[in-house]
Amino acid sequence: MNDLKNRIIELSKLHHQEVISWRRHIHANPELSMQEYQTSAYVASRLDEFGIAYEKGIAKTGIVALIKGKNPEKKTIALRADMDALPILEANDIDYKSKNEGVMHACGHDVHTSSLLGTAKILSELKDEFEGTVKLFFQPSEERYPGGAIQMIKAGAMENPRPAHVFGQHVYPELEAGKVGFRSGQYMASTDEIFLTVKGKGGHAAQPSRNIDPILIASHIIVALQQIVSRFNSPEMATVLSFGRIIGDGQTNIIPNEVKIAGTIRTFDETWRKEAHQKIKKMAQSIAEGMGGSCDVKVDAGYPFVYNDPQITESSRSWAVELLGEDNVIDLPIRMTAEDFSYFANEVPSCFYRLGVANESLGINSSLHTPTFNVDEKSLQTGMSLMAWIAINALNE
To answer: Which of 176, 203, 211, 309 is paired with 185 by a 20 to 30 Å CA distance?
Structure first.
């Protein structure tokens, strides 16, 4: 395997500049969730160049490709990259700045897609060196509920052939380029959206006794709901409940008829997740009714939490150490952010890991989902080589 590892490293160096050009093209031409038509066409054109068979139009803009090695029916594994961008106005001063105003690859999906294309090129050139089949998922709409992963699964992406494992990587600006991170077991939280409409009776603010003040009711509800995190769940059961939107469209002297509130709850336990939904509903409605109003509660269940299978994750971590060295592989903390890769991980034992992209000396250190997010493109070489190395080792496991 050492010879194969060295060949992967050399091929990643050889193709690095080309993969950078792919990434910059995708970055300059971002598309929102379920609108990734040009990105999908660009991916397909690269796969055509590599001579890799694929099916497009999966879940509208998704692509499923197959790289068959020797004895292709022996085992199948899958590699996933997401393609969509975010509704953010880019503030970077770079040659490949977004051409689509108000749309930006601020979450690194341009890196994920171009890196997987690089991996595909490497594996296609080494297909006589391994047994089994590598399946490639170029996925739409990770950023928008219900998520492209579940839609691709429903469209049959996980079948014919069915992979034993799925692997995904995500950029990580908290880590220097050239490094990667892994975490076994629970890694990223489930995510649910909460929508409350508090109803009262509006009127003149100078005559509150004639009104049922929905703003006052809403403030009591928001404060009280924090008990769900601090008093009802077990300390070991990490939970976040936050509200980011409150609309009470009155005036300085006008109490409105209703207030709209929106927020999110995130956790790592499905039983507690359902219980928390019911507690939110009961508490919000009871408080509103007790103060003379009412509250409509809607909880939209989003992505499940990401669970990294311990066995395949520990194997992947050891393969990363073999390729990159012990100093370049770290253990990750738990995260309250969410990812629809969780749907793949619910299907088969899977591993979702992090790719370092920061470079403090170059000032590349902005957080995800910000207008100045960018990456050290050295990370592309790490990303494509590690995915290829993991794929080949997973087929041999």
So the answer is: 176
